[in-house]
Design a protein that fits this description.
The structure is a single chain. This protein has one domain (2-192). It contains nine helices and no strands. It has helices at residues 2-11, 13-23, 27-38, 41-53, 67-96, 105-115, 117-122, 131-156, 161-192. The longest helix has 32 residues, at 161-192. It starts with a helix and ends in a 7-residue tail after the last helix.
Length: 199
């Protein structure tokens, strides 16, 4: 059923959000049947892409990383995505009463999980680690994620459209802050503990 909902939010989100709300997914179920698998896509694809094909800015002069240096980075990336999903759900739950919602943490986790689906799937682009290609795919995924957020908040959080717009905008802002925080931690780790080595 999770796979059907995942495809549904990609093809007809407004109708699918209503079906998802009726399922009453728990946080544990979101993680065990969805997040743990989808969060593995970006790090696994990046690991394969950077160690087997090599990284490139323009599409030429590919630079490969050693598997020994890329593996700890991929594992750390995976756990960062798992934690990031939970942090986003916590922030949504923390803000919800401000906008008149009475939703549970489970509802916030459901919203986070299905909204982030395009971002997780876009991680497949890392199999071809060419910067301009990955940026294009990433931007398309972000655009659709924003669309899912704005269509999903009024349904899952059970609030009117006008309040949902402002709530969605607040969630988007928090998401950007979490992303910048993850990038900052990544930069620090790359410069100290997990330095990638060129093969």
């Amino acid at each position: 059923m999770f796979f059907q909902h995942m495809m549904g939010v990609l093809y007809h989100p407004k109708e699918e959000w209503k079906l998802i709300r009726e399922e009453h997914y728990s946080t544990l179920r979101c993680y065990t049947s969805h997040v743990v698998y989808l969060a593995a896509i970006p790090p696994l694809a990046a690991f394969i892409g950077t160690t087997q094909i090599g990284w490139s800015v323009t599409g030429g002069d590919f630079v490969k990383l050693t598997a020994a240096s890329a593996l700890p980075i991929a594992i750390a990336f995976y756990f960062a995505l798992l934690v990031g999903a939970g942090v986003m759900a916590w922030f949504i739950h923390w803000m919800e009463k401000t906008y008149g919602s009475q939703s549970s943490f489970d509802d916030c986790m459901v919203l986070t999980t299905f909204t982030a689906t395009p971002l997780f799937l876009a991680g497949l682009a890392a199999l071809i680690p060419v910067l301009w290609f990955d940026v294009l795919i990433g931007m398309a995924a972000v655009a659709y994620t924003v669309h899912l957020l704005y269509t999903g908040v009024p349904v899952i959080m059970k609030i009117p459209e006008d309040r949902a717009f402002f709530f969605s905008s607040s969630i988007l802002t928090v998401g950007l802050v979490v992303l910048v925080g993850m990038l900052a931690v990544t930069a620090v780790l790359w410069g100290t503990v997990m330095t990638p080595w060129i093969a």
